[in-house]
Structures are given as C-alpha cells and as structure tokens.
Write a structure and sequence with these properties.
By secondary structure, the chain is of the alpha/beta class. It has 25 helices and 15 strands. 45% of the residues lie in helices and 13% in strands. It has an 8-stranded parallel barrel with strand order 6-7-8-11-12-13-14-15, surrounded by 5 helices. It has a 5-stranded mixed beta sheet with strand order 1-5-3-4-2, covered by helices on one side. Helix 6 runs parallel beside helix 8, helix 15 packs across helix 17 and helix 23 runs antiparallel to helix 25. Keywords: Glycosidase, Hydrolase. One of its GO terms (biological process) is glycosaminoglycan metabolic process. Its EC number is 3.2.1.52.
Length: 601
Amino acid sequence: MPVTPFPRPRSLTTTSGGAAPDAPVTATADAALPAQGYRLRTAPDGITIAHRDAAGLRYALQTLDQLRAASDFAEVGYDIADHPDFPVRGFHLDISRDRVPTRRTLERWLGILALARFNQLELYCEHVFAYRDHRQVWQDASPLTAEDLRWLDARCAALGIELVANQNTFGHMERFLACEPYAHRAENPDGFERGGRHHPPSTLAPTAENAAFATGLLEEMTGHVRSKRINIGADEPFELGTGRSRQEVERDGGLGEVYLSYVTSVMRPWLEEGYTVEFWADVFGDHPELMDRVPAGAVPVVWQYDAPGSVAEVLAADGGELRAWRDLGADIERLRDGFRGRAKLLREAGVPFWVAPGTGNWNSILGRLDNAVENMTDAAEVGLETAAAGYLLTSWGDHGMWDPPSVAFGPAVCGGAVSWCLETNRGLDIAGVLNEHVLLDATGRTGAVLDRLGRVARSFGVPLLNASPIARVLFPHVGPPLPAYPTRQALDDVARTLDQCRRDLGAADPAAGDGDVVRRELTHAIALSHFAVELLRARAEADGGADAIEAGTARRLLRELEPLLAEQRACWLLRSRPGGLDDSLARMDHVRHELLKAARG
C-alpha cells in the first residue's frame, strides 16, 4: 500500500514498480524549483532528486526515508513535488513561565520540529538566561547558560533550524522589576490595576536608559547564536502611559507614538547591523496610523490564540466571559475575524509581517486541540491570502505551565504541516501522525488519547477564551472567573472520557525514547483533571461559593490534592529543570486555602 509521507506533499503520484532500498540516489540542483522545494522520483532504475537548495535536498531525503520504511517500497514508484507555503516556519517555546526545559527535552523538541519542517526556533525569555551582570534576577530559575545556548545553536544548525535570540524588552519584565536594583526602571513602580486585580510592575518606562539596558541584554544573548534575526517582544506594556510616561503620552501625540518611538530605539542598532527584528504587533495593531513608519527590516508579528469559532461561542453566550474580557480592554468583535482584520491592514500598508497562532496548551492542563487546529488553520489561510512572510507557532506557559510538554506535540505537528502546505494538510490525522512518527505506538492508543484529551475542554459546555474550565477552577485567582458552572451531565461525560483515556493509556505502548515519560505525565494530567471535575462539581453544588463547599467534600479533595502535587513535582523533573518548580506549585495554594477553610465547616 503506498505511503503518504508527513507532511503530506502538495503533489504525489504512484506507479507500479519501485526502487530497491539500496538503489543509487542522484541529486541535482535545479534553480527553476521554488525555494526549499524538491522533486523526488523512485523507479526500478533508481532514485532521482531535483532540489532548489540545501533545504530542499534535506526535505527530499526526509521524505525518501519515510518511503523506504514501507515494506513495499520496491513495489511502488513515487513521483513527489513539494515546496512550502511559508518561507519561514517558526516554533516559539515559552521557557519563562517557570518551566525551563532540560537539554534532553530540548533535543526531543528538535526532533519533532525537524519532522514537521519548522526551520526556526525561538525560546521566549524574560529572566531565564544567565546574564553575567544580573544574577539576582535568574539565580533561582535554573536558567539557560551561554554554554546551553551554544550547544542548542549547534544542534539546530545540524537540523536545518535557525535558533533566534528572543528577549522581551518592554512589557513582561516583572521578574527584573521585582528586584530592588531594577525597580527604578518601571513605568509604574506601584504596579497597576487590570481586570479588577492589582498587579506588580511589569513594564519598563520608555526611556533612553531602558532602551540601552534592553540592548545590553540582547547583545549578550545574540553573542552565542549565529542567526542575524532577533525577537524583541515588546508586547502587552500594560502600564504604558500610566506612570513615568504619562506626560510624554499627553505631549507627543498619544500612546502609539510613545510606543513606536521606544520600540524603534531598541530596534535601531540591530537594523543598522543588518538584523531582521521581530516584534509583537498587539499595540502596534491598535494604531494603524503608525503602520507606514515601520522601519525597514522590522517585522510585526500578528498574534491571535482564540479561533474564530471559539470567539463566536463566547459572543453568542453573551455572558460573564464576554463582560470580563471587555473589562480587560479586549475587542472581542475584532477577535471574531481571526487573523483577517490586522493582517489586512498590514497588507494594505505594504508592511511585511508574520502570523502567529498558538498550540492551545497553556491555561488548560490537557490542551484545547480543537481551538488550536482552527486557530492554526485560520493563520495559514489568512497568511496565504495576505502574503505573510512567516508563520510562528507559539507554545506559551501562562501561570506556571502546568500542562505536560506532550500536550503540545499534536499541535506542533499540525502547525508544522499546515504552514508547510495548507491545501494537502488541512484535516490532518493528528493522532495517526503522533503514533507513527512521534510516539511510535503500534497500538495507536497514545496518539488517540492525546487527541481525545485535547478536545475535553469543549465538552464542559462553558465557552471560554484562552483557557479551559479545568485551569479556571484550579487557578481561580489568575484569570477571569468562570462565567457559569458545567451541568451535572457535562461533568459526568467528561469524567467518563477521562476514565476511558486512563484505561487506554494503560494499554498503550509508545516505543519512543520518552514513551514512559509521556504515559506517566498524561496519567497524572488525567488525574489532575479528574480532581478539577470534582472541584467544579463541589463548587456548582455550593452555588459557586468556595467557602460553601460541604466540609466532608473539602476534606476528601484535600486528601487527593497532596499526592497530586507530589506527582506534579516528579513529572516536572523528568523534563524540566528544578528552578521555577516551587513557584509553579505555589499557584495551587489558593485552592488549598479555600479547601482548608471549607473543611473547617
């Protein structure tokens, strides 16, 4: 039976009569092919490869290896022509929300990324690189060192992946600003109010001194990688205009002008050195009047993590979730259009840009796979319509990255495939790809479990943005409150699905090197999700009041919680460094305290 390689090529035909497994291979460069493209033919007289460049040859040989693995390779002839939709296909992994991966975990990710034909990797950094002069900031974080970065850069280069330095330089600098030597750099040292909660300072004041400070961080990090591309972040400067820059904003034409002036000052030395500079387009996208002033070589990256269908469900519910996000300043009606609105503005302005969907693993425990697939597909569709120059798939770690790394494996292979060729990879069999190429599970169970678990969030029947009900009930103090509790029937259905996934996982046989780790971390994630279901049930019966949970139920949940936290610690250390673990576990203290109070009656 003919093999369908992964990712699915844009053109594949078969004939009877293939090549011998050890048949000679003739490779020829062909400048007429598209960039990164190739033509592969196998026949009784041998194997021929035409390739545009080194990347095209790499992908042709990758495809050939998959064909050779089939038992009937010698009986089937293949004629495959392929090239990517997007020249840059990047993967962006958050390592700053407590979970810093070990080298072994990074190597595992590189194998998956190479399989899915990503050609760029970014490790999102706030405070987890061991900067020479900033030990106080990273000393408890088990940061990446210069040696780690040089090792990773070399491993990436060997796989045809460009490692891009990524350091935020404006918002999300709270780990620096929490330390006394850096407090003076804050836009608002007293912090800020957002969504009815007080938050510690997170944004640098837009000053020349802070731009120079950010430049120093970037200089040190870029010194250990060979890429001439950087990502300076610059997203979500929530306090901008509320503190030290208030008068500047009033005097110089508004928040957009001050934002662009600061970000341009951070970019300028890198652009002058011939670097391409990525920056997030959230603030920039709210000020279309600035779009014709993007410096040459700067690339705004348009991010959007909720699929149009998910947004439409929240709008249709017209309840507390919608009100909560509007209170945070989100334009939900614009989000309903997915990537189309901002991408259209940038295209019309003639500004090269990228699209950045998400893997949906964060704020979820089990992932939100259906949302992620629609989000990634929307990004590819709009990116192709508007000639986006790149596709950057993001895997974030909000609120301590409690989800196991394997939850993002499925979205990663899907995102790589649809950014390679949307036409042929739309509707990809994610479970099948995971079983055959990533987890090596001949039983087919592990991939199927990951697929089913990733779709549990929608089964609760409570439409949310950027989270699942599982995470919202476990971490009620870090995001919008649940707008409603699931029905008893929905909770029963989810519990049955979790039970079946646990049984299937017990019978699975993933032969990949981390197969035992995957089984253990998913078994734990299922148990933690069961706990969340029972907590949702208890709160629903108490009409949403944590203090009103029945004392016996609270005591039972407390007995279940401690072993879950111990197993979370053990699973974490199988893939991640110890720094940040205590901070991540502490995010469950709120639930523990609520249950202790309820248990006292």
